[in-house]
Amino acid sequence: MDNFVFQCPTKIIFGRDTEKEVGRETKKFSSKILLHYGGGSIKKSGLYEKVVNPLNEAGVEFIELPGAQPNPS
Q: pTM score, two decimals?
């Protein structure tokens, strides 16, 4: 096996109303993202607006790709 370095830093923010931080946190890394989600429950539950509003406020442009399929199904 060849030598290699694998680094995978992950920041997970827990707590009430922490979805409001998504815009500010995302803006640190990019100003344009792909928003990929499933069959629509994100919109029915209201989470979509709670995520999209902070993205817009932070000036993060996003392209939507609905219809994610579970794997395994």
A: 0.81
